[in-house]
Description:
- The structure holds 2 protein chains of 2 kinds.
- By secondary structure, chain A is an alpha+beta fold.
- Chain A has helices at 2-23, 52-55, 71-77, 82-87, 97-100; strands spanning 42-46, 106-113, 116-121, 127-131, 147-153, 156-159, 166-169, 176-182, 187-188, 195-196, 201-210, 216-225, 234-243.
- The radius of gyration of chain A is 22 Å and the shape is globular.
- By secondary structure, chain B is α+β, with helices and mostly antiparallel strands.
- Helices cover 16% and strands 22% of the residues of chain B.
- Chain B has helices at residues 2-14, 35-38, 54-61, 82-85, 249-254, 258-261, 273-277, 299-305; strands spanning 25-29, 90-96, 103-108, 117-120, 138-144, 147-153, 158-161, 165-167, 172-180, 183-191, 200-208.
- In chain B, the strands form 2 sheets. In chain B, strands 1-2-3-4-5-6-9-10-11 form a 9-stranded mixed β-barrel. A two-stranded antiparallel ribbon of chain B has the order 7-8.
- Chains A and B meet through helix 1, helix 3, strand 6, strand 11 and strand 12 of A and helix 1, strand 9, strand 10, strand 11 and helix 7 of B.
Amino acid sequence: MCHEKAKLLLVAAVLSLQSVAQGQSAAPVKSAKVSAPIDLTGYWVSVVTEDWRWRMITPAKGDYASIPITPAAKKLADTWDPAKDEAAGEQCRSYGAPAIMRVPGRFHITWQDDNTLKVETDYGMQTRLFHFGNWAASGGPPTWQGDSAARWEIPRTRVGAGSVAREVESQGGFGSLAVETTHIRPGYLRKNGVPYGAKAKLTEYWDLNRETNGDQWLVITTLVDDPDYLQEQWVTALHFKKEPDGAKWDPSPCSSRW
Amino acid sequence: MKILAAFAMAVVICMPASAEIDLSGNWSTRQHQDWQDRNPGPEAVDYIGLPINDEARARALSYSASLLSLPERQCLFYPPQYVVIGPQSIKMWAETDPVTGKIIAWKISAAPDRDVITIWMDGRPHPPKNAPHPYAGFTTGVWQGDTLTAYTTHIKAGYIRRNGVPSSDQATVTQHIMRHGDTLTITALIDDPIYLTEPFVLSRSWKLDPNVQIPPTPEPCSPAAEVARLDGTGAVPHILPGANPFVNEVTKIFHIPQETVMGGAETMYPEYRKKLRARYVRPEKCVRYCCGWEGREAVDTLKDCIGDYRQTPGLSLPSQGLDK
């Protein structure tokens, strides 16, 4: 019954829309900020319940557990020397895009402009910029946070049936943020020198989950591809709890030792 | 205006409650987080990053892994939250109503030590509080956009870490199951009024892989006498209060202060690092699982990778990590 009624209405609507479209230009494209299906802005804290020994403290040289590194990566990690990094002004090597969301800290997310989402970290004082739309990187040398292209993934539902069935974006404030980051300055996946290379690519999916008690949890599924130093894609998932304000925001610079 | 109204009406008439996504398939494990905890096993006394209370800590310290060798305990299952604690790949499939074709339940395959999880999608209520607690618990699910949120009650008492950190039969689990292309992520929030001071949250990911072999139901288990000294004696392996011989092991191997090793919610948050900074001295070299990546199924070579941690000054006891 539902399908029959909908079919008639949809046929009428589609036919009418076609005739209207012939005489009118397309509606203006909404900015990423306006079309955001979820609100990620605010302060978030990383809740470190996994890989604690490798995130909350600096592990020993040679402790590579869990990361699918290649023999070449192992060889390089075995030469890790934090003093050498300090002397070279490379204290931020473990704060690059593939590792930054794993650092134990707080993250402040704001809109820099209508199509750029900004993620700042207190630990390491890094800034990530997620560019939506037809953004193009300006070139130049690679940076710790690389070039990030972002898009909203809004779930689609199929409505109608038969020949008039179509997919529409679902309503209700659901969706995810997808981010691809490249052009990243080579650095460390872990503070103890486990390397990623110049060809590393980072793919992230940011999901927002709301609990019945009002808590909000941000879950980031992180995929790191690196043909130089990883035997397979490094797949991890992290969670962050939303905080009411920035009262616990505690900026501290990069450190190669702590 | 009329056109839009007609279109909107048509959409509303048949708009599903959510944007259901197909979760079915064989999802291959990725042990790229907590590999030691999920594969060889955690250190015998390591409660770091767990929001446990004193009661949980006391029970954990009295735990002996030899308990698992008792014939009556060899075939017991872990609770359903082990889907994110354990190392296994999972299979997911839907069960449909034969008349309407609607999905009435999503299933998550079993593991050798965990039962099949059924996530009821047909709106049925949870059983009364005092109803039996099956190994899989009782789970209902709803779609929130294209995230399947599942809520589990009626869980049997079990563990949240394989070194004996307990979970009670009053624990509940909320799981958010998210799919992005060929990647599946499950975030589980474990609440337990008996043993946790705040939710214990874990997130894990799997990759779609039709080639991975995953039996949907548990494999048969036959108990047998594993340890001669326990066979038929009626002894229940345990450790008396204040007598746990492993209590300093993590401190000696990894230089982590003992009070940190005892866990608690405080250890999960970044500001805890301020307490650690003055007390933690990085070990000179890796002495435990230092082989590098040996592949996802690295158990066979694991014993060669444990390393020379036994040469750590003051350490003479073997770890229980490989006991199970």
